[in-house]
Specification:
The protein is of the alpha/beta class. It has helices at about 80-90, 110-120, 145-150, 165-180, 190-195, 200-205, 215-230, 245-255, 265-270, 290-300, 320, 340-345, 355-370, and strands at about 1-10, 15-25, 30-35, 50-55, 60, 65-70, 95-100, 125, 130, 155, 185, 200, 210, 235, 260-265, 310, 385, 390-395, 415, 420-425, 425-430. The strands form 5 sheets. Strands 1, 2, 3, 4, 5, 17, 20 and 21 form an 8-stranded mixed β-sheet that branches. Strands 9-10-11-14-15-16 form a 6-stranded parallel β-sheet.
Length: about 425
């Protein structure tokens, strides 16, 4: 079926288009976009065309989440590819990158193919698998990176931990460079983190919970940047949370290092001081940091130092998150709340323009990963997100599509709602009152 998206506010960063216009979609691709289309619909006036009234809403390239945990295979009680991608579609994401810390780990061509096979059956959005750097993510032996890329992997990562053997990691970077894929880095020095469960600061002392210092992240950020400078690989830093991470990315870019960084909504929305007590729904890795760190992350996004907004969507079972912060697993869900949090905490206060938000959630992530998307020019894939930035409501964990309900944002009032998510010209999510 054709689509005629009428009267929306087009935000297309790749083509510098910021205007009220119509968009025509045919055969899964953008057929045309322009302000006079309503006067000349051509083939789009028949029964085979669905008209979408986008007046008062933004029409953007579909969002790509560079960082999710879909849990399948191995942890289906937390999430499945089917439920996780449905949650992503509700959040406006037309594509996601699932991390490899499944069971077994996504560490070989066969596992990459398995993820893609399940996604082909159960997902209505694009799934771009990320392969592990080392076998079983044990940090001892490099995986078959070329084989995984041939099978469909779009990047490698040891997410959930860092590869502590610098020589092994450097060799993996060389292989990734040859294969033309980015390395996605989880920056955490396991020798420094100890039993840490939240940010090392006054709040941790108040609650009597071991802390995680900024150096736990910063030491590995510095190491990985230096290794990327030496190998020439494209390095993408996951879930950056500290002010010095922003500083180092800025300096590395000036030195010509091929590095990018992402910030997650929880890290630009909350500080450690907003943790109400021993509530594991506020436990994530890296942890919520200080107000100075939060401000630096916002500045980094505003100035384009940090190029992407990703969710680190990490669902867990309800019983797991009922434990103390000291004992519960790290991670919160984020696919369905990311857009509204970005609007509320970045656009409304003036850190980002609507166009910049579209760039950091769509155009830049697609460029970083090297996949189609992030562009609504004629002939491009019709992966489209339609949303507003004014709807006001409170986040309700009970309305989440994800199996995980572990969010610190339950009851938080936000602005911005996704109304349609379109993949290849097919409406895969539609908001209904």
């Amino acid at each position: 079926m054709n689509l005629w998206i009428k009267g929306g506010h087009l935000l297309d960063p790749a083509n510098n288009r910021d205007e009220i216009c119509d968009i025509l979609v045919k055969d899964g691709k953008v057929a045309a976009a322009g302000s006079l289309l309503s006067d000349n619909p051509g083939d789009f006036s028949g029964e085979n065309t669905r008209i979408i009234d986008a007046a008062g809403k933004y029409v953007m390239p579909g969002f790509l989440d560079l960082h999710v945990h879909l849990r399948e295979p191995g942890f289906e009680y937390k999430e499945t590819i089917k439920t996780g991608t449905a949650a992503a579609a509700k959040g406006g994401f037309t594509a996601v990158c699932p991390m490899p810390n499944t069971k077994p780990a996504t560490d070989c061509p066969e596992m990459i193919r398995k993820v893609l096979d399940i996604a082909g059956r159960d997902s209505k959005i694009h799934v771009y698998p990320v392969g592990a750097v080392t076998k079983e993510q044990e940090g001892k032996e490099m995986t078959d990176i070329a084989g995984m890329v041939k099978a469909g992997a779009k990047a490698i990562s040891e997410d959930g931990k860092s590869v502590m053997d610098a020589e092994l990691y450097r060799n993996a970077m060389k292989e990734a460079k040859k294969a033309g894929i980015p390395v996605m880095a989880h920056c955490e020095d396991k020798n420094l983190v100890g039993a840490g469960a939240m940010n090392a600061g006054a709040k941790a002392e108040e609650l009597g919970i071991p802390g995680i210092t900024n150096a736990v992240e910063d030491v590995i950020v510095a190491r990985d940047i230096l290794l990327a400078k030496e190998t020439g690989v494209k390095l993408h830093l996951c879930h950056c949370s500290t002010k010095d991470s922003v500083t180092m990315v800025e300096l590395a870019k000036k030195e010509g290092v091929n590095v990018s960084g992402e910030v997650c909504p929880h890290h630009f929305s909350l500080t450690e001081q907003e943790i109400p007590g021993d509530d594991a729904n506020y436990k994530m890795n890296p942890p919520l940091r200080s107000s100075a760190d939060v401000e630096a992350l916002r500045r980094g996004l505003s100035e384009g130092i940090m190029e992407a907004i990703s969710t680190d969507h990490a669902p867990h079972g309800e019983d797991e998150k009922k434990k103390s912060i000291a004992e519960a697993p790290f991670g919160i869900v984020g696919s369905e709340t990311a857009y509204a949090l970005a609007v509320t905490y970045l656009v409304k206060p003036g850190y980002l323009t609507p166009m910049q938000l579209a760039e950091r959630m769509s155009t830049n992530p697609c460029r970083i990963l090297g996949v189609p998307g992030g562009n609504l020019a004629a002939g491009m894939p019709a992966d489209i997100t339609i949303a507003d930035m004014d709807s006001e409501y409170a986040i309700d964990k009970n309305n989440l599509v994800s199996k995980g309900k572990n969010t610190p944002f339950h009851g938080v009032k936000v602005q911005g709602r996704v109304y349609f998510t379109i993949v290849g010209g097919e409406v895969v999510y539609e908001y209904k009152e």
